[in-house]
Automatic annotation (TrEMBL):
EC number: 2.1.1.-
Name used for this protein in its record: HIT family protein
PANTHER family: ADENOSINE 5'-MONOPHOSPHORAMIDASE HNT1, HIT FAMILY PROTEIN 1
Pfam families: HIT
Amino acid sequence: MDNCIFCKIIEQEIPSYKIYEDEAVYAFLDISQVTPGHTLIVPKKHVTDIFSYDEELASQVFARVPKIARALEAAFPDMQGLNIVNNNKELAYQSVFHSHVHLIPRFDQEDDFSIHFSNNFERYTTEELTEIAAKIAKQVK
Ligand code: AMP
Ligand code: ZN
């Protein structure tokens, strides 16, 4: 797609630090290197975000994630963990609108990546959670 920075990387029109490529995906270092080895996996097909994946594309992209995860683990013997992040739409911190999966190796608690999960369990009744689950379940197609 014109004017998409990740399409240009896939087409080798602009440089990248390539890690892996096959018919479906391209993996390369994220230039921000949140932690050492921070890698992006992108589908070669331009899709904006997760809402545009069909099952075939999803199985192609997400099937490659463990392969790159294991490569990071082997490459960084001091790696203690791995966060896999996929941001969708601007509110959720997506800044490049060609879908991508971040693999962020973790080394220690002060390694420059953080994520905060609140626990709001006490704000909901059993009935409310049942209703929320049913509302979503009805839309699964
Ligand atoms: P997100 O905010 O989830 O959309 O992530 C986009 C990521 O793309 C950011 O972490 C950027 O550092 C990264 N990025 C942007 N341009 C490039 C580039 N030319 N090469 C490698 N990574 C890039
Ligand atoms: Zn693109």
